[in-house]
Amino acid sequence: MSNKRASDAPLIRIRRRDTAAVAALGSLVLVLFWLFGELGFLETVVAIATIAALSTFYYLTVSTTINPAVGNQALRARDGDEVDEAQRAKVMLENLPNPVLLIGAGGRIEIANPAAREFLGLEAVTGHLSAVLRQPQVLEAVSAALRGQTVAPVEYSIMAPVESHVRAHVAPLASHRDPSMPWRAMLVLSDETSIKRADRMRADFLANASHELRTPLASLAGFIETLRGHAKDDPDARDRFLAIMFDQTERMQRLINDLLSLSRVEMDEHVPPNGTADLGAIIDDVVDVLRPQISEKSIKLDLQVEPALAIGDRDQLLEVVMNLVENAIKYSGAGSTVEIRLSGHLGRDQAERPGLTLGPEASRLTLAAPASEPGDRFVAVRIRDGGQGIERRNLPRLSERFYRVDGQKSGPREGTGLGLAIVKHIITRHRGGFTVESRPGAGSIFSVFLPMPESSRKNPD
User: In the CATH hierarchy, which top-level class contains the domain 272-461?
Assistant: First the structure.
């Protein structure tokens, strides 16, 4: 009962105050009528006494005439509903996965949920929208919404540090309390990179597969026709043709696998990985797998590996090292040396330098470069082959799809021309760097460097 009375106390006080005020006002009016001669003295006294008696009765009984539920609901409606609604709206906004911003007069950011702050790199919800989003079409749409105009969604693309596609939805908002207040604009950003990449992946896959598979399929059809014809009774020709057919089938299988791998990497290129990988263990695994090829060509392997962790997807980094080491073995001469170096805790300048050198006449090119801060630390993998080297004019095209350097012989297992393209896309996804240095007659050095996790940066030993 005491809790109930306590919850009713504010409304009771209001009612009693209003009763006293009405009684005082009524008594004053009666006195004025008596002063101006409209009422007699006795009538005035009786009327004031009546008002006082009724007011006193209501003043004493007001607590029993109030419905507590109705009274409390009225108070909550007046004092608490708007606060509750605002709190619920804030919680919903904070948990939305899509970036949402409220833009006020002059294009200043008033509200930005966590997704928006992460997407735009906002450290604090201050400043002008044009300072963090330099997209003229979006800014024009926001300006129109601030004038109360309805605008259509706007699409824009960002090409650096990685390609991404965004759709911006802009809606004008008017104040429900005061229609005379300036308009505001709600900006919702939707990342459609995965959709765009999926569409392009399907188109590219069909175009590349149909182009690259046409020649080996035509060869297989010709060999099969020959084996069914005059060569069917020739054991030597049959064995020779079957060996060629087997090589062509293997090449098609490698091509399909590389195309699928490249498509998967491109799909996720705009989403950086958040795991960690032990590059020393990855190099050991790659060397174990390629040991038969190393022995077959009597390759001497010079390994200098120190423990080093990198931020990344282990399977993809394994693919990077596998591609680079396998290329070094394929393009190195029999009995030559392949050098592999792994070092960590490098600054950006140290990581970009090849470490191994081919002399002052060597040509060097950066195929992919990260956006880094001065304090970032990197781990670098450098692989030097014992091959013929690559001319300067060919270096810019090394990471193109299906590009093969003229005159390079890789042996019976001809490459698909996709390996370095896969490496570049994986390194770009990992926000790392990819460089090449080469000199004809002296071989080539391929280097990749990747950001180290924060914990490893603090413990260089």
Answer: alpha beta
Pairing of strands 100-103, 309-311: unpaired
Residues 438 and 397: their CA atoms lie apart, in Å, by 14
- Whole-angstrom distance, CA of residue 318 vs CA of residue 338: 18
Q: For residues 170 and 388, give the distance between their C-alpha atoms in angstroms, rounded to a whole number.
A: 57
Report DSSP state, residue 453.
P
Asked whether residue 268 carries a pLDDT value surpassing 80, the answer given is no
Other CB atoms within a 10 A radius of the CB of residue 243 amount to 11
* Predicted confidence (pLDDT) per residue in 199-218, tens digit: 776 676 667 666 667 777 88
Amino acid residing at 347: G
CA distance linking residue 384 with residue 436, whole number of Å: 10
Most distant CA atoms of the chain, gap in Å: 144
CB 405 within 8 A of CB 383: no
- Across 108-206, where does the E strand assignment appear? 109-112, 154-158, 164-173, 184-191
pLDDT at residue 459 above 50? no
What span, in angstroms and rounded, lies between the C-alpha atoms of 295 and 280?
Answer: 21
Could you tell me the residue ranges of all domains in the chain?
2-79, 96-191, 193-271, 272-461
- What class has domain 96-191? alpha beta
Q: Chain-centre distance of CA 316, in angstroms?
A: 18
**Class of the CATH-defined domain 193-271:** mainly alpha
Distance CA 121, CA 216 (A): 49
Please provide the average confidence, as pLDDT, over all residues in the chain. 78
pTM (2 decimals)?
A: 0.55
Separation of alpha carbons 419 and 9, rounded Å? 79
Residue 75 pLDDT greater than 60, yes or no = no
Q: State yes or no: cis peptide before 161, omega within 30 of 0.
A: yes
**What is the arithmetic mean of pLDDT over 269-284?**
88
Looking at residue 151, its amino acid is V
Q: Can you give the pLDDT at residue 382? A: 92
